[in-house]
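Entry for the shared binder. Reason: the reviewer on the internal report wants the predicted structure included alongside the sequence.
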Amino acid sequence: MSRQKAISRDDVFEACDALMREGQWVTQQAVLQRLGRGSLSTINKYQAQWKQDFFRRYQGEGLPEHDAGLPRAVLEAARVFYAGALDVARTESAKAQATAQAELAEERHRLSREYAGLQAAARAAEEQASAQRQARELIETHLADARAEAEQRAQHAMALERERATLRERLEQLEREHAAQERGRLQEAKLAKAALETEQARSAAQERRHIERLEEERQRAREAAALADKLQAQLGAAQRRLEHQAERLLEREQRLARAEAERAALTAALDAERQARQAECDRRRALATETQHLREANAALGAERDAVRREAERLRHALAQAEARCETAQQRLAAQSGGAAEAAPPSPVDAKESG
């Protein structure tokens, strides 16, 4: 049996980039059809490297300065939308700041008559800050556990890669032996190829669903950020109206409880997704045992390795976002506590200590 010309890493990368520019899904079958040659095992290896390079270039970096292989019209529309949203946000922020300054000027003369109430509110704010620090420490503990789990997944992915290399060597040996076998094996190979294509189509559909879930998680993160901004504005209003401090603090605790419930729901969703992926892995292993075909086992292991790496990357991204939100909330609370202390007139005890 004559062998076709081997494909290189650059051939696979160019084919994947072309499919992305055309708005098509980048699957092994699509790359094979575009190249017209090569084996699925080789395409799978280089396609995994291309995915890592693609996410490293675009994930978390915002809009690129150059086209980066994307249509210029898409980039220009995104830049115009981003600039417009930024102008609206700045205008709304300026209006809110002017309103807050006017309200602060109107109520400043009342602060001196309510000094005792302000001290009680300040103590309550300090207690709340202490509780939030404890909550942050608990969150950091959970984040450390999640990082450890991500590292374990990465190690598992490396083990899968080594096992995949072993299976690839065995597959190449079987392909050499397959050339000398009788014609009946050719029909079996055709059936196995059809099953492999079906599995690849199923994997592509699962990848699309995973991307959709990722977009939903990003939307929930944006909603959480908007909720945090709303809470920050309400907290600032509560500090400017210190006679309502207790009521505002209670409202903030309720919102924090809802945010914690949302985080618990997200954790449950992650657990459910892991269980679904485990079920998929069990089904693939059952398919490999039933067909006794090393090529299908190789493809299943490669798909599992990609899923583990994407899951680890997604967990790292979610952890980074959670840490950023916690740090931002802590800084805003510290700044607001400092602003309330500066606005309050000094007590006799403070004056004595400063003297």
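Summary line for the report: Residues 28 and 44 are 6 Å apart (CA to CA).
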